Amino acid sequence: MSYKGKYKPANRKKYKGDPDNVIYRSLWERKFMIYCDTNPSILEWGSEEIIIPYVSPIDGKRHRYFPDFYIKTDNNDKFLVEVKPKAQTRPPKKRKKTSRYLYEMNTWGVNQAKWEAAENVCKRNGWKFIILTEDHLNTHKYMSNK
Hints:
Layout: E1 5-7, E2 22-24, H1 27-38, E3 42-47, E4 52-55, E5 62-65, E6 69-73, E7 78-83, H2 99-125, E8 128-132, H3 134-139
Parallel strand pairs: 7-8
Antiparallel strand pairs: 1-2, 3-6, 4-5, 6-7
């Protein structure tokens, strides 16, 4: 099975965006798409449909962040959801400054800037921002850290 591909929503009316162009970039994202598409408690959802500007700590320039998912539930809660490997949700362990370590530090810094911008958007709109890892996706506890 490919790690990237197109997802075809079964419930096209729930999808906010172009239902013919829903791209997953990992099997974790695909798994969450199926959950959103088939869960009756989710009234609408979208994938990479919202754009959030942020300033990168690496180059000091303004960039655009596309959170992995937007969802609206049947109790009118709205979420921005990011799906990430657990290793990318915490700072890298200190070690010798190899190119890999520097890459991990850059990724961590950029992710922190993106997530701070997402938190601010959510605060302004009364939404919630959550990050899901393989731990959530393996146990089906997707909304456990509301």
